[in-house]
Amino acid sequence: KSQVTLEYENDTVKRVDAVVVSTQHDPEPVGVSEAAWQEVIKNDIIANVVKVVIPASLIDENTKFHINPTGRFVIGGPHGDTGLTGRKIIVDTYGGAAPHGGGAFSGKDPSKVDRSAAYAARHVAKNIVAAGLADKCTVQVSYAIGVARPVSIYINTHETAKHGLDDAKIQEKAEVIFDLRPAAIIKRFSLDKPQGWSYQETAAYGHFGRDIFPWEKTEKVAELKKALNIA
Q: Which of 147, 4, 141 is nearest to 69 (CA)?
């Protein structure tokens, strides 16, 4: 599995910000520590895969490489990763009105960002609109396995930002106000112990748009306005 985060300038790729690669591998040889073996794998993947595929002009000293960030990955394939993948991801979300990363919700526990981070992105976008900062808002968040903080956050108000704001300024403040680490999301919405709602209720009629769910609350409106000096 791989993920590449690009930085754009005027709709043109400027640089590669981060590269994530998780790859199955042989066990470490006798006499070689796990840490040393992971370092060998990391160097091999960067030299023989990443830098072969990605133009050198897009990689700089600030490009981050997350190679097998969770560590040892000897057991893989169907033997190591099977189960319910989920279905109906579009009707569960915005009915095709918004981009979707492809990860299903149902069948996954809240430690999976496919579910929890989608709820958090909804929460961020709804508060931005409720605060009157914009008429529309799309929030995109991406993660690397084993890395708590998102490797990228992208906020797009579709040219509807108000009060002289732009997307970059709104994003700057939103990143401070909303903690998008998986554990923080689980705690904020009580995803491990639902209160006043149930996962069964998300199984029909979509996961968004009903006030029974905590990610629909707009309690961050005042904080957003204060951070952006809006009365």
A: 147
Mean pLDDT on 124-138: 97
Interval 53-69 mean pLDDT: 96
- State phi, psi for 118 to the nearest 5 degrees: -65, -40
CATH code where residue 22 lies: 3.30.300.10
Nearest to 170, CA basis, from 225, 90, 98: 225
pLDDT at position 87 is 67
Q: Distance between CA 50 and CA 229 in Å, rounded? A: 43
- Same domain flag for 43 and 122: no
The reply to whether 182 and 121 lie within a common domain is yes
| 192-206 mean pLDDT | 92
> Which of 67, 96, 124 is a domain's end point?
67
pTM as predicted: 0.76
pLDDT of residue 86: 63
Asked whether residue 76 is domain-assigned, the answer is no
Q: What's the domain count of the chain?
A: 2
* pLDDT above 70: residue 190: yes
Whole-number pLDDT of residue 5: 92
The C-alpha atoms of residue 20 and residue 46 are separated, in whole angstroms, by: 10
| Residues contacting residue 42 through CB under 8 Å, at least 6 positions apart | 65, 67, 68
CA terminus-to-terminus distance, the chain: 46
> What sign does the dihedral 196-107-136-159 (CA atoms) show?
positive
Instruction: Note whether residue 207 is domain-resident.
Output: yes
CB-hemisphere CA count at 13 Å for 119?
Answer: 30
pLDDT for res 10: 83
